[in-house]
Give the backbone structure.
Amino acid sequence: MATNHVQAGSQLTLTAPELVSSGGVVIAGSIAGVALGSASAGQPVDVAVTGVWELPKVGAQAMAQGAPVYWDATADLVTTTAGGNTRIGTVVKTAGAGVGTVAVRLVSI
């Protein structure tokens, strides 16, 4: 194996930008993922940056399979609105309006 390999990269230990709970979305610069544990702001937290995750969404929005989705950090919800939000992934299973969660495949930003 190459001697400069650091890690597989599916999970990263990041500095929590704010108080995060296990299962919550973490945005650190251009890295988006899901916290695997809880941490206070400034503390290390393990974050999954790959995989499919059930995340809370804007209830009034329908989200079609294959659609790009974004994280609204103000509302702490997945949204289809790109402006002012961070790309987090792609919808895996269609979620209609009135549904509170959506399955999202995380993507690298």
